Every structure is written in structure tokens, then in C-alpha cells.
User: Fold these one by one.
Assistant:
Number 1:
Amino acid sequence: MVSRRHHFLPQCYLKGFSKPRKRGKTHHVVVFDRHGKQFTSNIVNIVVKHDFNRVEIEGTAPDVFEQKMAKFEGDLAPALNRILEARNLRNAEDRAILLNFIGLIAIRNPRHRESFRNFNEQVVKRMMELATDTKERWEGQMKQGREAGVLKETKTITYEEMRDFVKKNEYRIDLKTDFLIASEMKSFDAILPTLFNRKWVAFTPPTGSSAFYHV
């Protein structure tokens, strides 16, 4: 069975901020939402989004990317534990895993996706404004599309109808998850060298004090 509940922040990371319950079988954190509401939740039920990693590519399992992320998180969990135990970043392998994790969460989250979608929406809407600026331009665009085989023969929409639709601006441009993931991974490849080239220092609290990763 393919899971469709995908965490965009790994549970192994959230555990560091949690309090175990039922003899460690579940882990709970105090959550503050953007509206100021406070509540306690099992980490299974937060920072999770339906089909966040689902792909729709012919001949490919829809959860192939989710499985890849799960494999990475399998390496991340013990790396985080070793870093916390050592209280430093001297282990090169663990440091590399941590920096990959930082890069992933920086660009793979719903807020970043919405910003990217909104940017593309504004670009497309501006293109539609230009394409429907005159009747001659719109009919020229349609002719080119039909000749290129991009446009199928469907119900004819008049220029006036299309221009009215564009001017009302009552539509939304969505992007396929496949495209979003591909764009994110290109950005990830671009920022990762920068993360590795930085000089990182681990700050640890005095012995006996409450560490930042505890609630």
C-alpha cells in the first residue's frame, strides 16, 4: 500500500523536541500555529501533507521519491544522535548528512512551494495578458499552437470570451508535483556547495542545563 501522508520535516528530527509517552511508543510536542493557537500533538500528525512527495510518471511508482527520502532519513536519524552525543561536528560523514538535511528543509516545504507556484502564476498571467492584448495576436497564437500540434481541436472559444476570462483574473495556476520536486532538487544541487563551503561551529549548552532540542 502506498502511503499518501508525507512528512516534509522528518519525525526523527521532531523527536529531538518531543516528550515520549506510552513508554516511548509515541512522541508529543507543543505546537504553536501562526494564528497563536497552542496545542500538544503527536509528531505523526504535524508537518505532514497529503501527497507532498507523490510523482505521476508513467512506469514509475508514485512513491518512488518518498521512498528515497525515507532512505535518507534512515541515515539521518543515527547521524543526528551521534552529533548530539559527540556535541560537535567533527565527524565528516555525519556533518555531510546534516548539511544535506539543512539544504533539503530550506527548499522543500509548503511555504517555499507556494512562493514558487505564485511566482509562476504571475508570469503565466502576464503572458496571458500579452497574448490577449489584441484579437490578431490571440488568433496568431492559436494558429501556431494548432500547427505545432499543441492545441487539440476542441470547442471554439472566441477572443472576446478569452479576453474577458483573463481580465476577470478568476483563475489559479497550479504546478504538478513532479515539476515542483524537479525544480527543488535543482535548487538543492545549487545551494549544497555553499553549505559545505561555510565554516560551521556547534554550540552546546553547559552540562546540566536544558538543551534547545528538549521541550
Number 2:
Amino acid sequence: MKYFYKHQCSAMRLAVVALPLFFMSLMFPVDAIAHGVTEGDKGFIQESSGIMILPFIYLGAKHMITGYDHLLFLVGVIFFLYRFKDVGIYVSLFALGHTLTLMFGTLMQISVNAFLIDAIIGFSIVYKGLDNLGAFKQWFGFQPDTRIATMVFGLFHGFGLATKILDYQVSADGLVINLIAFNVGVEIGQFLALSVILIVMGFWRRSESFSRQAYTAQVLLMTAGFLLTGYQLTGFFIA
């Protein structure tokens, strides 16, 4: 890991490289792309009524497996976690935050602007890339508690999905059971996605090139986060 830690002093340089992409993304008008669903799924949610456990489990799993914003953040979270115990703790904190705001936001009908929420979610990916580089310790002299940060961003991820569900005006008939089923599906999808990611990461970590490529991986992670944030802010100002 010597190569990687030698580049921790370049955290500001990484931000300088990625920031132009953020401003470039502001030039292109787009819809809110994170937390989107297919037209078929959207129609099903709007027309569904009554308790539908299996369909909502499927929708929850599909949302997580295809939710690139969730997956990018989780990749950043587990990137340097080598023990399954640590992976379980961080993923559970993220899932807890996600579940709380999804249930609370939907049941209490608290709607937040989808563009702003998704912009924050994009920023969470940038944050995790910087955190993995030790940038906060270098810049500000302290290291934020990564467990608290993981749960806080999980709260925002859940609000993003709750906002979409409210926009689709899902039926109140069977809503609580369907939301629980959806959350079960999210956890199933998260488990499946993380299983694949951890297998790939396991092989990658055994390679001699991992320590050299880890820094580049954080650059790419931050770049994706800046792009997502810029797209969503563009949508917010245009809308």
C-alpha cells in the first residue's frame, strides 16, 4: 500500500482533476436520473392496490441491483474494509438509515425535491472518495466518524426513494406491508450486489497492482460523484 499512501498528499490534486467534470455536467439539461424506475415499473406502482408482497420484494431488489448511485457509494464504503465484521457493520448502518427515511418519508408524506436529494447522494460518493484518501485528516486535521457519515448518507438515500414513491402516488391500501416487502427486496438486492463486489474485490486485492490502482479507483469514484451531482443540480435549476 506504499504507493497509495504516498498519493494521499495529492488529495487536493484529485479534486482539481474531477471538479471540471462537475462544471461540465452543469451544461447539459437532464432529468433526475438517480432513483428512477422503468416506465413499466412506474405504471405498476401507480396502478397497484392491496397487499402485493412478492412484486414489491422484486421491485426492491431490482432497485438496489440497478441503483448505480447506491452501489458506487457502497463500493467506496467497503473499498478498504477487509473483515466481514466491518463490512456487516457499515452496510447495516447504511441499510438502517435507508430504511428509516424510506418508511418515515413515505408514510408521513414528506416530499423533498428529488433533484436536490439526488445531488446530495452524488456528493456522498465524492465524500467517500475523499475519505478513502484521508483528505479530511490532511485538510482539516481530523477524521470524521465514517460510521456516522455512512448512516447519515443512508438517510438521504432513503429520502430519495421515498420522494419517488410519493411522486408515483402509490395506493394507501396495503402500503405499510408493501413498503416492508420493498425494503426486504432492497436488502436482498444489496446482499446479492455486495456478494459479487466482494468476490471481485477479493481477487483484485490479491493482485500486485491493487496498491497502485487504488488511487485511480478513488479518482474514478469521485468523478462519477461529481457528474451525478452536476446532472441533478442542472435538473433542479432548469425545472
Number 3:
Amino acid sequence: MSKVQDSVHKGLSWFNFSKTQAIIILCGVYIFLSFAGNIAATKVTYFGQLVMDAGFIYCLTFTWRDLIHKQLGKQAAITTIWLAGILNLVAALYFQLVVYLPAETSWALAGGQTAWQFLFGLQIRIVIGSIIAQIVSELIDTKVYQIWTSGFGRNKPQWMRVVTSNAVSIPIDSILFVLIAFSGVVPMYVIGQMFITNIVVKAIVTALSAWMIYLVPEKPVYAADSSKR
């Protein structure tokens, strides 16, 4: 596997990323996954016969957080988690303002105002639930990852650090999110289904995406930022 990582490092080094570029790419993708997941979660859908929200792209944030931790360090991962939470909250509050802005008559008659109010009126609860669940679970994910990589799992295959940290953080994220976002909106048996389905889907995504930890090698993929402007 070290040969694979060396090949990945060599390939990424070809792009000659600066540290600033690496930070923007890694952290930007994380924030996108978080934001897109929160918006998509306003739709309740099915996974087979089970009910779940449609924000399953959010599942990738757990593995992507591990990439940030591995390449940029623990503090960068923690900062990105908090930044994503703050940006999602600010966006949700802005959407609430938009809900209350006067709607153009023909657009409102076509159902635009009703649809916007339903989606983004519900979205504030979803965002709050997501922010709380995300910050709590991903800070725990960060802690478990750090303990694993600096202790018992130091010499273990890298995919195991992803699986181990996700196995702890995913159930915490799932139960906090569905309770805060959907209590009183859907029946409790549906919330139970959503909790189970979220864990199943996130476990599947973890299994399919654990290989991504090898996208960034242990050594930096970036060159030192130049002091010249």
C-alpha cells in the first residue's frame, strides 16, 4: 500500500499545489458536502422500504474530515468543522429573511412562495439539528481519529482509522439529527426508521469511501507557500 501512496503523492505533486491551495480544496469540499447535505435533507425520501432524508451526500463529510485531519492536522479539522457549522447557520438565517420578503405576485400564484416557505421554514430546524449533530459527532470523530493514529492504530492499515472513527461518530450524529430536525414533524416510528436508515446508509458510504483516505499521503501534497507576492 505504501507504493500506492507514493504514486498518489507523486501524481498530486505534479499539480504543484501550494499549502493555501491544498487548504482551500480540502476545506472547501468539506463545507460544500455539509451545505448541500443540509439543503437536500429538507426532502424526506426512501431507502428501499425505509424512510430517510435525502441529504445522504452529507455522509461523505466523515471520511473527508479524516482527509483534512491527515493532511492538514487536528486543528485544521476542528476549525473546518466549526466554520461549516457557522456558515450553515448564517445561510439558514438568510433564507429565513428571504421567506419573509414580499413575493412577486405571479411567482407567488405559481406556488413559489408556498414551496419556498415550506422548504426553508423546515430547513432552519434541519440546519440547527445538523449543526449540533455535526459539531458534536465530528469533534468526537476527530478525537477518536487522533487517539487511533497516535496510539493502538498507528501501524494499522489506514482504512481502519476511517472505519473506527466513523463507527463511533455516525450513530451519535444520526440520533441527534433526526430527533432535533424531525421531532413533532413526522411520527416517532418514522424517526426510528430514519435513525436506522441513516446508520445503514452512512455505514455503506463509509465502506465505499474508506479508500479515499489514501488520496492524501502522510507527507504533504503541497509545496511551501512562497514568500514572494
Number 4:
Amino acid sequence: MAANKLDQEHELIARIVAGDEKAFTTLFFNYLPVLQSFALKFTKSDIAAEEVIQDAFLRIWLNRDKLESVENVKAYLYKFVSNECLSYLRKSLRETKILENARLNQQTSSNDTIDTINLNEINALVTVAVSKLPHQRRKIYLLSRVEGKNIQEIAEMLNLSTNTVKNSLVSALKSIRIYLVSHGISLVILYFIVI
């Protein structure tokens, strides 16, 4: 920088330190083009680069008394702008993580809701299918699946042979599966459901 320009800049700085806003505006516009392209390399956004520079210059204004001891104004301004760029990038990264976590949580809860709805639908269909079973078969199914009784216990309770209970249970399960499949529940899903 030429001696004359350097003197002008020192004079400008002295006025800024004294609180001269016009001098500060001049400094801002003198360095805006180079600082803007510098900030743009970091932020990859014109709007973000503008915000970064405004924040940097606000800090410079608030700390203008420190300008007195500054030897290289350009380097000083670059330091402020690069600090603001780093803050912007950190904040941006945090926001991206927060949004990503929110999206994942929403997706998970949405999937849970869908799973719950599907399970509720299947349970409702099973209830209807069970209600359509012949009386004894229905009783055997309920004792086995709802009350958790084993074949031997059911046979003793109903005074039936274990073979009769076993065959009735197999027939009941087959009827329920056929009913569910006829209502669009795939066989793959049935493997994961204890009917």
C-alpha cells in the first residue's frame, strides 16, 4: 500500500476509534469486495457471506478502540471475518445435525405408528376370524393362545383326547391364516405373528 494510502487509512482508523460512523462505513465499503469473496469460499452462499461480514464488522465496531494498535488493517479484518466464518460453519453443522436427528426421529415414530396401525388391523382381523370358528375349535384356540394352556391341560379341561385338541388347534390356525390372507395380510407377515 502506498504511503499516501497508508496515511489515509491511519486517519480513517483514528476517526473510527473516535466513534465516526461515516469513517467506519468508508472502511466497510473499501474492504467489502475482497472480504465478500473470501467469506463466500467458506460459506458457499451469498446471503451467508453477507451475514458473516455484517457480524464481523459489528464486532469490529464494538471493539473499535483496539483498532488503534493495529498495524495491518486488512489482516485484522480478515481475522475477524474468518472467525465469523468458522462460527457460521459450526452453527450450520449443529443445525444440520439437529435437523437430521429430528428427521430420523420423525421417521422412526412414523414407522412405529404405521407398525402399530398394521398390528391393530391384524389383531382386529384375527378377532373376527376367531369369532367365525366353530364353538369347540374357538374354545380350544382361546385356551391355547389367550390363556396359555398347553394341549394336555386343554384336553383334561374339556375331557377330550390330546389328538382331538391338537387337530382342532391346527384347524383353527389354518382357518385364521386363510381368513387373514383373504384380507390382504401376506404369508410373510404371518410368520412373524404368533397366531
